[in-house]
Structure formats: structure tokens, C-alpha cells
Amino acid sequence: MEAISVFDIFKVGIGPSSSHTMGPWRAAEQFVRWLREQPEARRDLSGVREVVVDLFGSLAKTGKGHGTDFAVLMGLAGEDPVTCDVEGVQELFASICHDKVLRLGGVHSIAFDPEKSVRFRMREALPFHANALTLHATLHDGTQQSQTYYSVGGGFVVQENAPPSASQRVRLPNPIEKARELEEACARTGLDIAGVVLLNERTWRTDHETRDGLLRIWQTMRECIFRGCHTGGELPGGLRVTRRAAAMNHKLLGIAGPVGKVPPGAQPLGETVARLTPESLDVWCKGLRASDSDFQNIMKWVGCFALAVNEENAAFGRVVTAPTNGAAGVIPAVMMYMDLFARRPGEKSNEEAIVDFMLVAGELGSLFKKGATISAAMGGCQAEIGVSSAMAAGGLAYCLGANTQQVLMAAEIAMEHHLGMTCDPIGGLVQVPCIERNTMGAIKAIMAANIAMESDASQAKVHLDDVIATMWATAKDMHTKYKETAEGGLALRISVSVSEC
Ligand code: SF4
Fold first, then answer.
1. Structural domains of the chain in order of their starting residue, each with its CATH number
2. 280 compared with 473, residue with greater pLDDT
3. Which of 29, 62, 180, 218 gets the highest tally of CB atoms within 10 A of its CB?
4. 381 lines ligand 1 (CB under 6 A)
5. Which of helix, strand or coil describes residue 153?
């Protein structure tokens, strides 16, 4: 049984896509690590003469708009998506495109023309998974070394028939594959969902480390919201989408002036108009908490938070997979709603509630990954926005005082109303419909949590396991053109030519 930690679900990275950016980036890193172990390539990689990358299936069809070429180059160049300088990697990408030289692993320069060396094989797909890439290295002695990787959603990368990693092979005290097993574990241990998950997380680290790690991820989410709420201009990619979160933030706060709206041509794309510091972030949040109890305004704030994250994501900013990048705004928006506006019962501090939220939401996300998919290339947008909404609904319900059955019911309700949702990103960009779709996922999550809490969940007609199985069956029935290929739906009706390297 696959063991998935909450830190596998929530990972810091860079936009715009977990499966098309983060996964290929990690695959390229793995390839470089593997090359270093090949005696002919040498540890300093000096035995390598050339590298060529083949992208297949959905990675080929929407890879340009999703930044797959950028991501693979950064992985080959030895950059880390968690710690890299977000603007620095854009400059590095531009310089590789211009100079046609890449420093493999950050140590060995090779000639590399992205136009020729990253091949988008539009008509080819590999059977194991829709998101496949093969990396080839030609060595100075003329031999070729190749490896194939699959980006299976949420930034997870696997190799066909490869044994599970050491962290996946661990034996958890409460192995859980289905929602009913989670219920049984709660009954057996006398713990609630967050307690059971925390017990499992002890397999990898102490409670203190889990708590600190989750709060660091929450801080990255808040910073992402802040940046999005203070950055105007247009998104990159050729669709000319105007960023809206900054203007909305200012309007809701009643601030006059042009902030959030950068005059066309006056500034580079995505100019940040307020400096992010720990103090400025806290002052801003305190202002929001004090400012609003009006239902309509709170709803607008939730939308604003989700827009902010996904505008940052579309602009290749730093985000957290939750469980994917395309759906990265739903959970932070609902967590921010809980943190600033919702009335929670009990004595727990805001930080304790944030940790609980992530433990519960992470476990729900792993149930979808094990029982269905979190990859839009396999299941359409129900696998991204639908799953994130279900995770957020369960996390919120838990923190608002729901019992175990009600938490599972909240997740079930949220997914039930995303079933069948297709993936049809215009121009292969993670912008339209993706950005607004996060606002809908967040609002549905809040509603699902509230309905579940007003319900007798023991009378539910549909169990979470049923909706996960239904989602997977629907995914298998869905036509390929609706699975992150930009060959159907809105993507077909509205054409755009995306920016080239
Ligand atoms: S339509 Fe949904 S699944 Fe497809 S790229 Fe956009 S957010 Fe992701």
C-alpha cells in the first residue's frame, strides 16, 4: 500500500502546473542525479556532450502554455523549485534560450538549443500515463543514455515498474486506502481524523516537526495571497488576461488610487506594488479581520484570495500544490476564510486549527490519489478543482466542529458537484477557466462544509468512497480532448497563440 504524507500533498513549488511544471522539473533533476551515477557520464557530468528531451501526450499538447520546457531546463540546470529565486530562474531560462548553452547540473556547460532539444511529440503518447517525458544524454564516447519518467499529478513523478521509494515503503500504524478505513481507524484508536493522520505522520517525523513544517507551508500560502493581492498588470502567455485580485483587494479595503492596475506599457508584467515583509503581511491580515462581517464582502474576499493565488501561479510565481498547482487557490482561500472570518468552536488557537485543517485536507487528498487520480491529464478538472474543493470542505468542516462522518460528507458533497468537470485551458495556459474556477471551488467547499454540519451524516445516501469511485469511472469515460490537451471545450472555441521561448 502506497504511504502518502501530508507533505507529499502540500509541496512548495513554482507555477503554473504541478503535473506539467513541477513534475517535469523533478524528473529532469532525477535524470541529472542518475547521470552522475553512470561511470561514463562522470560525477561532474563532464562525460556528457548533448541532452535532448522528448515530451509526450498531454505534456506535448499543453506543455508550451504550462511552462514544461522552462521547467525541464531548470531541472537540468540544477535549480530547486523550492528554494530558487523566482525571477532569477526566468532570467536563466531567457539566457539559455538566447545563448543556447546550458550548465548541466549547474556544473557542466553543453550546447543546448531549446527550440531543437525539447521536442513536443504532439501525436505520440506512452501507454503508462498521459504525462510522459524521456530524457536522452549523448556522451562524448558516442553512447546514449535515456530514462523515461511520468508526471502523475500533484508534482509526483514515477518511473514505470520502478520500486516504491523508501518513504513510500514504510509501514504506517494506520494504513488507509479508503474513507471507510479512515472511519474504522478513528473508531479503533478513539482519535478523530487529525489525530489518526498525526499518528501516521510520526512514521516520518516528530509532531513538533510536522507542526512547524505545516505552518511554514501555510506561511508560503499567505505570502502567495499577499503578493497576488498587491500585484497588477497582465499575465504572461499571450492571452492578455488582466490580473484582478489587486484591484479587488483595494476596492474591498476602500483604498482609492491606481494600485493593482498598471498602465499598459508602463511596467513589466506583474509589477508588485506593495513590499512583502512579515510585518506588512500581518498588518494587512489584521486589517481584513477587523474590516468585514458582511456576507457579500466575505464572499468577495474568498474569491479575491483564490484569484490572488492562481494569478501568482499563472505568472510562474511561488505557490503550494494543494493538491495541484492549477487548483492551488482553493485551499488557501478557504483557510484564509477560516482564519479571518469564520467562528470556530473550542479553545484551539488559530495555528492549531491551521495544522488540523492541513492534516485532514491532506488525508482526503491522498484518498483521491489512491482511489482515483489528482491528474487532469487522467481525469479532467474534477481531479484538480474537484479534489481541492473536497479537501477544503473536509478540512473546514473538521475545524468548525464536524464529527468524522460529517467531515467525510463535506468532502463527498464538494466532489459530487464537480463530477464530470472537464479540463479545457485556453491556449494551454493555466489561466482561463482555471483562475476563476478556484474561486468556485472555494465557495463550494464552504457551502459543502456548512451543509454537512447541518446534516445527520449517518443518513447520507452517498459515501465519500462512492464518489471517489464514481469520479474515477467518469475519468475513464471522459474523452481525451477534455484531459489537459487543450483540444476541446473553451480551448477549442477561443484560440490564442502562446508565447514562445
Ligand atoms: S481547467 Fe482545471 S484541470 Fe485544466 S489546467 Fe485549468 S485548473 Fe487545471
1. 15-158 (3.30.1330.90), 179-493 (no CATH)
2. 473
3. 62
4. yes
5. strand
